[in-house]
């Protein structure tokens, strides 16, 4: 049986799963198997990123493999992260990021744990923290394993990871929360108010809601958000909603505005509920 997640397997894997050479040849002839490269086969509709990585001579890893595993991954200029052996030459392909690793797995992609190690080693700490928290949120690794991966890093790189928070629900939340934490601002992730759960509470009374998707078309969710915002405002909280483009494409313009709000120190005041009146 071929790998169910990616639809690609090595000849060694297939032989271990009772694929005989005549059966393989017949499957190739009938179109049920497609040769990828020497010693590797795929089924129709197999994962194309895995196949691209194999043809280049490496394995799918780092951010690309994590995305296939379901981890929340920030958008990047290059669409494919391929991991090569430690002594391999780096090809010149504009759309591909290459990393070297101590070994190549026998499977088509690196494990979640190794992919996290690769991101935490080769990318900036913010990106590493984003994917680490997402992997925990998706139950792909435990909080204990996440802490172990952090301890593997050089002490200098561990500084940002002290803000690791397994309650984060998206990369957008992680980025915004980290912005405040780096400046010594108290933040509560996934805070519950009388209006319901909010992404984060900054200080005593400033609620931040973070959009984790580029596009939205769910009117029901929007209506729920509006009800929650009104309830929280009535309870004395101020809500700021940050869109996906603001967090990921306009972030350098957004940060000074957030700093300006912080300087007013309104977030340090306790919530002051509004008086309610009958109609």
UniProtKB/TrEMBL annotation:
<protein>
    <recommendedName>
        <fullName>DUF559 domain-containing protein</fullName>
    </recommendedName>
</protein>
